[in-house]
UniProtKB/TrEMBL annotation:
Keywords of this entry: ATP-binding, Nucleotide-binding
Protein's recorded name: Protein kinase domain-containing protein
Protein source organism: Symbiochloris irregularis
Renumbered residue ranges of the record's region Disordered: 136-159, 266-290
Organismal lineage: Eukaryota, Viridiplantae, Chlorophyta, core chlorophytes, Trebouxiophyceae
InterPro entries reported in the protein's UniProt record: Kinase-like_dom_sf, Prot_kinase_dom
GO CC, any one term: cytoplasm
Amino acid sequence: MRLIKNTAINKQLAAKFITRKDSKLLSEATDAAVVKHSCLHHINLVGFREVYKTHDHLVIAMEYIPGSMTLEAKATASGPMKEADIRPYFRQLVQCMSYCHSQEGYHTNLRLDRILIDTRAPQPIVKLTDFLYRGPDRTSSSSSSSEKGDDVAGPSKYTPPEQLVLLQVKNDGSMCDAGAIDVWALGVILHVMLTGRFPFLDKVQPGNVTARVMRRMALDEFEFSSKPFAQGASSEVEDLLQKMFQRDPEQRIKAAQILEHPWLKGAESTSEEPADPVTAAPMQSTQSQDDIIHIVKRARRKRLW
């Protein structure tokens, strides 16, 4: 990600440069991803601005958040957070994912370091970034099934059991429910904010998702335990995590249902949170979908290098 300046509007933008030489990074999936992002408008999603091509790259310009910090930095700076402090961040994140899912937009590689906190407002605003665009460090999709990415052979701490099963048989994960993958990752994020630790890690090799962990999760030999929350966590948040860590993706709670869960619904939103996160989203691109598709397709054309 690089910082660029749009001289027409005199504003700085964050830009993702995707090389035109690598067909794995620039494919038909990119067309759908760029168009999908341009159609999504939510205050908690980094806004799409424009797309253009250079000789070597397809450039996707997005909203720039100066002075922001990652949710990872926030969660690890002070150790476990209080539930009351977690709710505003988590509510915004789930609102964004619920909206995206309702528009058939899926991230499938949510991580703490891909969530920004805009600290310019009186009440910090969560900004989901790295949405939909495929790269060497992620698997993501704009459809209801996740697509193979370059990191598919290496599970992360956010990988759900159904993906681990497919990874074990060297499947590309195409049968996984992308919405359920996002919800599992949301559960991991909430767990880290509550405890300062990732769930389902190898006790022998702390911090790692090892083959032994993969086997136990894939065979349903791991049971989520509330023991890490013995220091006073509410029964409501434990119940929510149980529902988010359901092994069967079909039984796993949906993003929209998380918003109705007592742990989130019982707490009032702060006065600074917008009544309508969609209409409160920053200005989007003036490019039409046809223009965007035309530019991306031109960038994918083969040429002599």
